[in-house]
Structures are given as structure tokens and as C-alpha cells.
């Protein structure tokens, strides 16, 4: 199976070390895609001294696993899981997965115990020893969470759309909704989300509702 390019890029970095973590030979299709990638020796060579530990920070959907029509259908291949396990077990790379899914959900999908998981776009962090870190959400906003979901379910969930409850954030999905309803669904979903004090962001065939705090995957990566 073709590796998603996000992890492929990271594996190229790892293979540039003196003692590669994995053994991987690109096929013709891989090679053509690699030709369009930056010259890592030129741009990153000084940061990749042999023996230094690397940080490998990955997303799940679209990186470790192919995107699908429904989040529940997404599966990580055993080849990919073994590659990630080898990297984590090697001691040569610090590995974390930062996902838009809830943190327990993404850990269940990947199933490795010795890496760090971060969910809800960085709002939740779960360490291998079981320690958790959750970004604080204002009480008045958090208190509106269930009301927001109920309102969305009553008004905009129809003709194939649905709400994914991720405990501290939501995603309103309309990928499989009838096209004639999508524009109005998305517009109204954004209005409802914002009326309860959450930030509404457009995503892949969806609208995300996130707490109104200054936090994202990039800040989560720095924190981790």
C-alpha cells in the first residue's frame, strides 16, 4: 500500500540518519512523489546529526490512515502501525500523534502504548504513563456543550448529516448529505455553534465547533 505522504516525509528524515530506524525502498511511484519534496540534506542536514533524537509529530486522518467517508471507517494499516511501532521502540525518535479526534478515540485507532496522544486539536494530551493534560475551558461555555449538540440535532441533522460528539468539541459532518441541503446546513450549523459561545471553523465536508480559547495543534506540539 502506498504510504500517505505525511509519514513518508518523516520516514525520509529518519532514513537520513546514520542508523536508519526502518528499512524502506521506494518504488517508482514513491520515487516520483519524492522528487517533488524538499532536499532535506540541504535544508535540514545541520539538524540531523547522527545520534540525535528526532521529534516525529503526526496527524492520524489523512497521514497515518487514509481519509474515508465516515470517521468510524478509517483504519490504519498493519504495515503503517508496525513502522510507527519500530520508530517508537527504537529510542531514536520522540513520537506523538496530534489529532482532531478525541484523545481516547485516536489511541484506540492506533493501539500503541509508548507514544503520546493528543486529541481535539491539542486540547487533550494523554501520556504513556496515563497522565492527562486538558486545556481549561470557561465554565459558561462548557455548560452550553450539551445544549449546542441538542440544537444541532434538532435543526440541521437530516438527509445524511450528523454530529460527532468529541466531549469538548464537535464536528458537524455533511459529507454524505444530499447536496441540495449542504449550503444551508453548513450556514445554519455555524450560526448555532457560535450562538453557544464556540468557534465555528469550516473543515473537510464539515463544520467544527471548538471552545473559544487560544489553542491549536501547533501550540499543542510545542507544549508536548
TrEMBL record:
Keyword Hydrolase among UniProt keywords: yes
GO biological process: trehalose biosynthetic process
Pfam families according to UniProt: Trehalose_PPase
Signal peptide residue numbers: 1-23
Enzyme nomenclature, EC number: 3.1.3.12
Enzyme class, broadest EC rank: hydrolase
Keywords: Hydrolase, Signal
Pathway the protein contributes to: Glycan biosynthesis; trehalose biosynthesis
InterPro entries on file: HAD-like_sf, HAD-SF_hydro_IIB, HAD_sf, OTSB-like, Trehalose_PPase
Transmembrane segments: none
Molecular-function GO term, any one: trehalose-phosphatase activity
Catalytic activity: alpha,alpha-trehalose 6-phosphate + H2O = alpha,alpha-trehalose + phosphate
Function summary: Removes the phosphate from trehalose 6-phosphate to produce free trehalose.
Family matches, as PANTHER family: TREHALOSE 6-PHOSPHATE PHOSPHATASE (PTHR43768:SF3)
Descriptive protein name: Trehalose 6-phosphate phosphatase
Organism: Anopheles triannulatus
Amino acid at each position: 500500500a502506498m504510504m500517505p505522504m505525511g509519514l513518508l516525509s518523516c520516514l525520509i528524515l529518519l532514513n537520513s540518519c546514520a542508523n536508519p530506524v526502518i528499512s524502506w525502498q521506494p518504488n517508482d511511484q514513491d520515487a516520483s512523489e519524492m522528487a517533488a519534496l524538499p532536499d532535506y540534506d540541504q535544508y535540514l542536514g545541520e539538524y540531523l546529526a547522527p545520534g540525535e533524537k528526532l521529534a516525529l509529530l503526526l496527524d492520524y486522518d489523512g497521514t497515518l490512515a487514509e481519509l474515508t467517508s465516515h470517521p468510524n471507517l478509517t483504519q490504519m494499516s498493519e504495515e503503517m502501525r508496525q513502522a510507527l511501532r519500530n520508530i517508537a521502540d527504537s529510542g531514536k525518535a520522540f513520537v506523538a500523534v496530534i489529532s482532531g479526534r478525541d484523545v481516547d478515540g485516536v489511541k484506540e485507532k492506533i493501539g500503541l502504548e509508548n507514544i503520546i496522544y493528543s486529541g481535539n486539536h491539542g486540547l487533550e494530551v494523554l501520556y504513556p504513563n496515563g497522565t492527562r493534560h486538558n486545556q481549561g475551558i470557561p465554565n459558561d461555555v462548557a455548560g452550553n456543550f450539551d445544549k449546542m449538540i441538542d440544537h444541532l440535532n434538532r435543526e440541521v441533522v437530516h438527509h445524511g448529516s450528523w454530529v460527532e460528539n468529541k466531549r469538548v468539541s464537535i464536528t458537524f459532518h455533511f459529507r454524505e448529505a444530499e447536496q441540495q441541503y449542504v449550503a444551508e446546513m453548513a450556514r445554519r450549523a455555524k450560526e448555532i455553534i457560535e450562538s453557544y459561545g464556540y468557534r465555528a471553523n469550516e473543515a473537510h465536508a464539515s463544520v467544527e465547533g471548538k471552545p473559544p480559547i487560544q489553542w491549536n495543534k501547533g501550540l499543542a506540539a510545542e507544549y508536548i
